[in-house]
Design goal:
The complex is a heterodimer of chains A (about 475) and B (about 100). Chain A has about 475 residues and is of the alpha+beta class. Helices cover about 40% and strands about 20% of the residues of chain A. Chain A contains 16 helices and 16 strands. The chains are: A alpha+beta (about 475), B mainly alpha (about 100). At the A-B interface, helix 8 of A face helix 1 and helix 3 of B.
Chain lengths: ~475, ~100
């Protein structure tokens, strides 16, 4: 048996549960994975900052209009009644996270998590204002010179501006962003919008500027339970201990094997570039957000030393042990089946969504009244909600009882796009047939689109027999 | 029955920044979920109209924000109790049953 090469290292091997966090100065690095990460940062943040400015058919394309309690997603308008879609969407998001974690490890952490993405942006500003890793460390150690004050102030200024813009953009998803912008420049922003802009701005500044990797280490629940989705075929970033050890410095051109050394030259670059400050050579650790920076750093060194790349690489535990890696395994199949099911239900219900709701409430004042001598009348309050993005006229009809007649409304009910119309309805039936309680149904059909049709059950009440 | 004073190593300690984070953060997440579920089904204006006079004059935006802060406060109360109970527990108790090491 090969001894297991991957060890999971607990939070602090010293036994202390919480050690005062040392400031981490991630070293700048370029390579395949940093480029991928930069691409993800630009794409995701571009989407975040740009999306609220996109208009669609005369309104903001993506607007979760909380004051009006309507969600606009391009042509689709969702109402509180459509809560099912939101629930399904959340289930799909959770299942996707499980699926991708089982398949490729912590892809989410390394490339898509807002914490990673905004931290990356804040670190770019830091590198631009304060320089490289070594310069930043020197600057922090050194006295408060004019240059230090200037550099630090510029960094803070840019950070605060970015955080404020982020807060503004965030609120722009819930209040039309152009109105919001006009309110800010006109100094007429409401107290609650101000509160949310500040809260989100502050959270961005604190999380991406100061807390950074501590969010992943101490605050993120996913970091703690993601290992439950892992198995020996999950893609992980790992140091090839068999190839690297024993590590040690050597002169360029030295043959490692004759010197009794492995391929690791112990340059510690993999540690210096790590945004969470871990040593990947100690094995798989839950602090690892799988960003791949250490791979880029190590590949560079391996190129310089003339050794093959991949001393630190994306691999699986099975591959490290010389076994075959299976992609399609029960865990992956179960997750993808569930994902397909939830996605199918969502799509099906979206495409078969009836853009019309009819609420029927019986009149509270009188159960029935006798009219025209030989008939009994019931009154109902109708609430017609047109969920469609264009106006419709609807015809009401009633059935379910012999001699039942619709008195009003007989003319089409006109309801504007995305509006609610409250109207009374009157039904009557011959007294001779009306005694007792009768189960009836009201139907509403759009005149211009017979496919838009709802059916609502209610009761018709006559004199006690 | 008199309670003996806690041994020095168990002396009450000031809340650390981790304690504060353990209270503020999970309750924030819970408040997000609670607000989402609650306000997806309940319109704050209905609450205002049915509630005490104190709420009169508040609009939906105020309702959402106050609701969120309310959920956050309740969550923070629960988290505070959890952290407090964990921190004031005798350390040896947790080892009991698993054998002392």
């Amino acid at each position: 048996m090969t001894p297991p090469r991957l060890r999971v290292v607990p939070v602090a091997e010293s036994g202390a549960f919480y050690a005062a966090a040392e400031k981490i100065y991630p070293r700048e690095i370029s390579g395949r994975f940093s480029r991928m990460r930069q691409g993800a940062v630009i794409a995701l943040l571009g989407l975040f900052y740009g999306m609220p400015w996109l208009d669609w058919q005369g309104h903001q394309a993506l607007l979760f209009d909380l004051p009006a309690r309507k969600f606009h997603i391009f042509s689709l308008t969702l109402w509180p009644q459509d809560f099912l879609y939101l629930a399904l969407l959340l289930i799909i998001a959770a299942l996707s996270l499980f699926f991708f974690t089982a398949l490729a490890g912590r892809l989410w952490c390394g490339y898509a998590c807002p914490q990673t993405v905004w931290t990356e942006l804040f670190v770019w500003i830091e590198q631009w204002t304060e320089g490289t890793r070594s310069r930043r460390m020197k600057l922090d150690r050194g006295p408060w010179t004019v240059e230090k004050v200037l550099r630090k102030s510029l960094k803070q200024l840019l950070w605060i501006a970015l955080a404020a813009w982020t807060g503004f953009t965030f609120v722009g998803y819930f209040t039309p962003i152009r109105t919001l912008g006009a309110a800010i420049t006109g100094l007429s922003l409401g107290p609650w919008s101000t509160f949310w802009v500040f809260l989100y701005g502050l959270a961005t500044y604190g999380n991406a500027g100061f807390l950074r990797e501590q969010v992943c280490k101490y605050m993120c629940p996913y970091a703690r339970f993601q290992s439950a989705m892992f198995d020996k075929d999950t893609l992980i970033i790992s140091y090839d201990e068999a190839r690297g050890e024993p590590r040690g410095p050597r002169r360029r051109g030295t043959d490692a094997r004759t010197a009794g050394l492995g391929d690791c030259i112990d340059c510690t670059l993999c540690v210096q570039v790590c945004p969470t400050g871990i040593d990947i050579r100690k094995g798989l650790q839950y602090e690892c957000i799988a960003c791949g920076e250490c791979i880029d750093a190590c590949d560079d060194v391996m190129d310089k030393m003339g050794s093959p790349r991949g001393l630190i690489r994306y691999t699986t535990e099975h591959a490290l042990h010389g076994k075959a890696t299976r992609v399609l395994r029960p865990r992956v199949l179960v997750y993808s089946a569930l994902l397909l099911l939830a996605g199918g239900v969502l799509l099906y219900s979206l495409f078969t969504r009836m853009p019309l709701i009819l609420d029927v409430i019986r009149d509270r004042n009188a159960l029935y009244r006798e009219v025209r001598g030989d008939r009994v009348e019931n009154i109902f309050a109708l609430k017609v909600i047109n969920l469609d993005d264009r106006p419709h006229s609807y015809l009401l009809s009633a059935e379910g009882m012999q001699g039942l007649e619709l008195i009003a409304p007989v003319a089409p009910i006109v309801v504007a796009a995305g509006s609610v119309s409250n109207i009374p309805a009157r039904l009557d039936a011959p007294t001779s047939r009306a005694a007792g309680v009768h189960h009836i149904a009201l139907s509403l059909t759009a005149v211009d689109a017979p496919g838009i049709h709802v059916h609502e059950k209610t009761r018709f009440i006559g004199p006690t027999p | 029955m008199a309670l003996s004073p806690p041994p020095p190593h168990e002396a009450p300690r000031r809340p650390s920044s981790l304690d504060i984070a353990l209270v503020v953060w999970p309750s924030f997440l819970a408040a997000c979920v609670a607000s989402l579920l609650f306000f997806a089904t309940v319109d704050p204006e209905l609450l205002r109209d049915a509630g005490p006079r104190l709420l009169a004059g508040l609009d939906r935006e105020a309702g959402y924000a106050l609701g969120f802060l309310f959920f956050w406060a309740i969550g923070a109360l629960a988290s505070t109790l959890s952290v407090y109970l964990i921190r004031t527990d005798r350390p040896q108790k947790r080892g009991a049953g698993r054998g002392a090491s």
